[in-house]
Amino acid sequence: MFEFTHRTEGHYEAEFHSHTFYELYYFHEGKCNYLIGDQIYNLGPGDLILMYGMTLHCPKVDPSVPYIRTIVHFDPALLRPYLDAPNAVPILQPYERFRNYRLCLRGEDKEEIERLLRTMRKHQERGTKVGEGRMMLAFVDILHFVYEKCLEPLNEKREFSSDKERTVQDVIALLEHRYTDEELNMERLQKELHLSKSYLAKIFKEVTGVTIFDYVYRKRVNEAKVLFLLHPGMAVTEVSFRLGFKHLAHFSRLFKQQVGETPEKYKRRLGVGRSSDGKAERS
């Protein structure tokens, strides 16, 4: 599976989605907040996002200005011939290590990535087997470029034993599906993962630097910010209950601790700068 769309323009309703293939997204121009899982990226021209695919994501676009982006969807298996070659560079490592990651490309880096994307488009337009092959080679060149730009953060990433990392990834994968469950507790995690509560708590803190429920509550609060952005009419109480809080006061206290202001104040501040029809005004 390989799909390439260059400099597409248009708007659509913000809707979270996921897929089983990898994605490379390049932002050319417009006003866009890109939401990936519990992260919100305020995009600028030259921003390139690597997306693992399975994490829920969607763009929140200001329709008052042109929204132009380039997207590549691809099955990583297609790159196996390049990865198996002698002295091959592990060009998929940024996807595998970071899952989702943004590069802010400016100056010469921005010019280079845009040149490579134009090269892909030129070969795509030929509509031949040779053109298809050269388009893929240009894309592999882009992945080498991305890998090189990720070398520093890749090298800075702290290493842990594979067993511990794998277990923590299992915990995180479970939390991705259960973090809004108001009955979520260590006993349930212990039962579903077949590991003791004390061991789970210990290795999660060791690998991530936070406790399991620090992670859960941070994810819930970040998700609340996403909901306030996407659904400005949604009440704070509804957001709180939707995200698994039994008590509004608990949600409000955690939100203020993490964000620095109450959810009501944060929600009001998001409305500042909006026009009467609810669209964000141009800055």
Automatic annotation (TrEMBL):
List, alphabetically, the PROSITE patterns matched: HTH_ARAC_FAMILY_2
The residues covered by the HTH araC/xylS-type domain are 169-269
Which keywords, in A-to-Z order, does the entry hold? DNA-binding, Transcription, Transcription regulation
Q: Which Pfam families match?
A: AraC_binding (PF02311), HTH_18 (PF12833)
> Which InterPro entries does this chain map to?
AraC-bd (IPR003313), Homeodomain-like_sf (IPR009057), HTH-like (IPR037923), HTH_AraC (IPR018060), RmlC-like_jellyroll (IPR014710), Tscrpt_reg_AraC-type_HTH (IPR020449)
Gene3D superfamilies assigned: Homeodomain-like (1.10.10.60), Jelly Rolls (2.60.120.10)
Name this protein carries in UniProt: AraC family transcriptional regulator
Species this chain originates from: Cohnella suwonensis
Q: What is the lineage of its organism?
A: Bacteria, Bacillati, Bacillota, Bacilli, Bacillales
